[in-house]
Amino acid sequence: MKAANKSILASYSWTTSTSAPAEFLDGMGTPIQLGEAPGYMNAREASLYLPCRDPSAVEFPRLEVSVSRLAEREVDRQRDPALMAELVADAARHVTRQLKCETASRLPAGPPVVGAGASD
C-alpha cells in the first residue's frame, strides 16, 4: 500500500514472547503505547504487541502488528517517524477486528502515546 507517497508493508504474526514488554522492546526504537498494547517506532518501522490468542494454538498469546517502509533513501530517514506509529495503530485496529480479538473493542481511537509516557 502507499502512505505519504511511499510504499508501506503492513503485516501481522503471532508471537510466543513472554518477556515483559519493556524488556522485549528495549532498544527497538521510541516506545509507543496504544491502550494496553506496547510497541515501538522508528523512522523506518513501527510495531505493536497486542494481547490476542491465536484461536488455533494455545501457545501464541500475543499478536504483533507491524508497518514498515519498503524503500528507504537518506531523505526518507528525515521524515517524522510518528507517521509510522499512526499507521500501525490503524492497522492494529483493523487486524484485531478481523481476527475477533478481545482487545479490538478496547483499543482507543487516534495515534499511540509516544515516548516516555508510553509505558505508564
Please describe the structure with a list of short key phrases separated by commas or semicolons.
single chain, 120 residues, alpha+beta, seven-stranded antiparallel β-sheet, globular
Describe this structure in words.
The chain contains 2 helices and 7 strands. The radius of gyration is 14 Å and the shape is globular. Helices cover 18% and strands 32% of the residues. It has helices at residues 21-25, 82-98; strands at residues 2-3, 6-15, 30-34, 37-41, 45-51, 62-69, 113-114. The protein has a 7-stranded antiparallel beta sheet. The protein is an alpha+beta fold.
For the largest beta-sheet, the strand count, sense and barrel status come to: 7 strands, antiparallel
Helix segment count? Answer: 2
Structural class label: alpha+beta
Beta strand count: 7
**Low-pLDDT windows of residues:** none
Measured between the Cα atoms of the first and last residue, the distance is 32 Å
Q: Report strand %.
A: 25-35%
Oligomer: single chain
Q: Output the strand order for the largest sheet.
A: 1-2-6-5-4-3-7
Mean model confidence by pLDDT: 79
Q: So what's the overall shape?
A: globular
The H/E string reads EEHEEEEHE
Please give the radius of gyration in angstroms: 14 Å
The percent range for helix content is 10-25%
